[in-house]
Specification:
Blueprint (H helix, E strand, L loop, with lengths): L11 H21 L4 H4 L6 H21 L2 H6 L1 H18 L1 E3 L2 E7 L2 E3 L1 H19 L7 H20 L3 H18 L3 H21 L3 H11 L10 H12 L11 H4 L11 H34 L3 H26 L16 H20 L7
Antiparallel strand pairs: 1-2, 2-3
Helix pairs in contact: 1-3, 1-13, 3-15, 5-6, 5-7, 6-7, 6-8, 6-14, 6-15, 7-8, 8-14, 11-13, 13-14, 13-15, 14-15
Length: about 375
């Protein structure tokens, strides 16, 4: 009996949606850097060229991850997790400092952001841990141990400081814990403790810079030409796009660089201004496809590891999209979370494509169940 090639079992819908998102991201990065003379004439140093390089690298790693049995990845979950923690510790010591934060390590002319690596490492680690303790997942011991697994990287990320990534780490843990079947009573108790401790955490852990961001979120007009400038300009850009936008490279706010970090944290403002409400709906539709295909992979997985890794990836994507778009439209404080597949950033794009490759591996290893 002839066996079909593994590529035959790829979820082409998932892959196509991801690649369209990557392409759309490069288009928005191009528009967002068009007026930047410093990057305009540097060929492979141009942000779009660098994003393209990472897209190629990520795509190659995606294919490699899909060919590798995800259960083998699970066996090395602890080493992957510990390796990501080493990177987080390294960035605190030798990382590049920008605006008082250490989030990147320079390697060969490129910057690596360990917090992006740790998100995928945490998903794999939690997936393996919950799968190994499926029979006792409702116990307090397993609940607290899984919480400790997530708290360690969250604390290291918070020290950088990177509140947004720490929040995403927490959401990943919560989503995967609930999917794994922990007791809701344990979650409720933890939530109550967190709410009681929140004021003290806010005073003792949150930096002055982060407190200022929260204050500006509540009232950006208090500093319209300083800390509140990005918030105000992003809302103006998105609102001015109306239904169909002003056209790519034609946005007034975008082309005049009114919004800082408009190819990273605020790239949704570029899309809103130049592609309008319809463009925003298209973007959210593509993310919906990716998230639901990941959940579909979770639903067909025959083991706990495959189910939880695919679901954890969906949770991560949902959290980042929700937070990034929320920041851009002004319903969340600025947190520094990138828009998956869209924002400029090699570490984020590469790790996301690797995660998609692992989901494809789950599909290939359960190929006797047809994807609908």
């Amino acid at each position: 009996m002839n066996r079909a090639h593994p590529f035959h079992y790829y979820d082409l819908t998932l892959m196509a949606a991801c690649l369209v998102l990557v392409g759309l991201g490069m288009l928005l990065i191009y528009s967002g850097t068009l007026s930047d003379r410093e990057s305009g004439g540097q060929a492979w140093g141009h942000p779009v060229a660098r994003q393209f390089i990472f897209a190629l690298l990520g795509s190659a790693m995606m294919v490699a991850a899909s060919m590798l049995d995800y259960r083998l990845i699970g066996r090395f979950a602890l080493f992957i997790y510990l390796g990501s923690l080493v990177l987080l510790l390294a960035v605190l010591v030798i990382g590049d400092e920008t605006l008082g934060a250490r989030r990147w390590i320079s390697l060969g002319g490129f910057q690596v952001q360990p917090s992006e690596v740790v998100k995928l490492a945490l998903i794999i680690m939690l997936g393996q841990y919950f799968a190994e303790h499926r029979d006792s997942v409702r116990s307090a011991r397993v609940f607290l141990a899984s919480l400790a697994i997530a708290l360690l990287p969250a604390a290291l990320v918070l020290v950088e400081p990177d509140l947004g990534s720490a929040i995403v780490v927490g959401v990943i843990w919560l989503g995967m814990a609930l999917i794994a079947g922990v007791r809701l009573r344990h979650v409720a108790v933890l939530s109550a403790v967190f709410l009681l401790a929140a004021p003290f955490m806010f005073m003792g852990i949150i930096t002055e810079y982060q407190k200022e961001r929260i204050a500006l979120f509540l009232n950006p007009e208090s500093d319209p030409f300083g800390g509140g400038f990005n918030i105000i300009q992003s809302q103006i850009a998105i609102g001015s796009g109306r239904w169909f936008g002003k056209g790519v490279t034609s946005g007034l706010q975008t082309q005049n660089n009114f919004v800082n970090t408009q190819t990273t944290d605020y790239i949704f403002s570029v899309l809103g201004e130049e592609l309008g409400f319809v463009g925003g709906l298209l973007l959210l539709a593509l993310f919906t496809v990716v998230i639901f295909r990941a959940l579909r992979a979770s639903s067909i997985a025959r083991d706990g590891l495959g189910e939880l890794v695919a679901a954890g990836t969906a949770v991560m994507l949902l959290a980042q999209v929700f937070i990034n778009v929320g920041v851009n439209v002004g319903i969340f404080p600025v947190t520094g979370i990138t828009l998956p597949f869209i924002s400029q950033g090699g570490s984020s794009l590469t790790m996301l494509l690797v995660a998609i490759g692992i989901i494809q591996s789950i599909r290939i290893r359960h190929r006797d169940i047809e994807f609908q």
